[in-house]
Amino acid sequence: MSVKPLRIALAGAGAFGEKHLDALKLIDGVSVTSLVGRRLEPTQDIAAKYGIGHACTDLADSLARDDVDAVILCTPTQMHAAQALQCMAAGKHVQVEIPLADSLADAEAVAAMQQQTGLVCMVGHTRRFNPSHQWVRQRITAGEFAIQQMDVQTYFFRRQNMNAKGQARSWTDHLLWHHAAHTVDLFAYQTGEAVVAANVLAGPLHPELGIAMDMSIQLKSAGGAICTLSLSFNNDGPLGTFFRYIGTTGTYLARYDDLFTGKDERIDVSGVDVSMNGIELQDREFVAAIREGREPNASVAQVLPCYRTLHALEQQLG
Is residue 99 reached through a cis peptide bond, with omega within 30 degrees of 0 on the bond before it? Predict the structure, then answer.
């Protein structure tokens, strides 16, 4: 059975952009026809590496092309909302990498534009797609497991403004609006309940970056489940995000795409979906939603409550 060809432009040819380029190569009928980057020469180099025919430094140049059906935004956080609006105004479906925005007003503007245009607008809340978290969700939806507590650690060592490749960033990352968004959304998604209470404490601001380098967040769902989230850019040790699900019938430890019992016994999640790569599964959902004319998992409408919670937490910090 043939699939409808889909032509995608990718904006943000950095470390995370390449993860999407690697994933898109694995999806039938998908081609990347345009690549947008901050500097032309390195963008052209990446375009050549992936066989992409057009490279530029202005998103508008890609949006004006008739060989672009949809856009994936892997640009700096502060550009996400405005660029998502720009894509939909040009009639293009769009997937915005997490976070959707760094303010509630901007997030709501994107949601309103999606409603107005009817285009697919999806946000890269990858934890919804990781096979480890999918496995837990399957137990929940089958009535075999209910969350009593989630304990989450999100730890990096980023005392300089560097990306995942160790290259200098042109923008500043944020524990609350980026990294906490993963867990705030996942907690509500897995419990199937609204967050009804949220508290936050932040450590000292970095003298040069101007952001809190350590943060502690507490959440409570409408049904009484709780979540404790610890975040740090100061952690000089094991890096990444580690999830502990404490529930009615067991304890599960999720470490990216790996899953273990509370006794550290590995759970085979290789059969949960068609891939073990959460980014690939996320991109497959985006493509499928466009082809099938439906709302995607992690649509802007579905994740908007997460950004309302982040806004409430930011208000607490003053």
Answer: yes
Q: How far apart (Å, rounded) are the C-alpha atoms in residues 269 and 259? A: 7
Cα dihedral across residues 269, 129, 191, 196: positive or negative: positive
DSSP 108-157: HHHHHHHHHH---EEEE-GGGTSHHHHHHHHHHHTTS--EEEEEEEEE-B
The tens digit of pLDDT for each residue in 230-255 reads 999 898 888 889 999 999 999 999 98
Residues 110 and 135 occupy one common structural domain: no
Provide the number of structural domains found in the chain.
2
Examine residue 172 and state whether it is found in any structural domain, yes or no.
Answer: yes
Structure tokens at 26: 């694995």
**Nearest in space to 127 (alpha carbons), one of 186, 174, 173:** 186
Q: Are 17 and 146 found together in one domain? A: no
Domain of 81, in residue numbers: 6-125+278-297
> Which of 19, 31, 17 lies closest to 257 in space, CA to CA?
19
For 101, phi then psi, to 5°, come to -160, 175
Q: In the sheet that 240-247 helps form, which strands lie side by side, from edge to edge?
A: 195-202, 214-221, 226-232, 147-155, 240-247, 251-255, 258-261, 266-267
Domain with 66 in it: what CATH number?
3.40.50.720
pLDDT tens per residue across span 94-148? 999 999 999 999 999 999 999 999 999 999 999 999 999 999 999 999 999 999 9
Note the pTM of the prediction, 2 decimals.
Answer: 0.94
Burial class (CB in 10 A: 0-12, 13-18, 19+), 214: middle
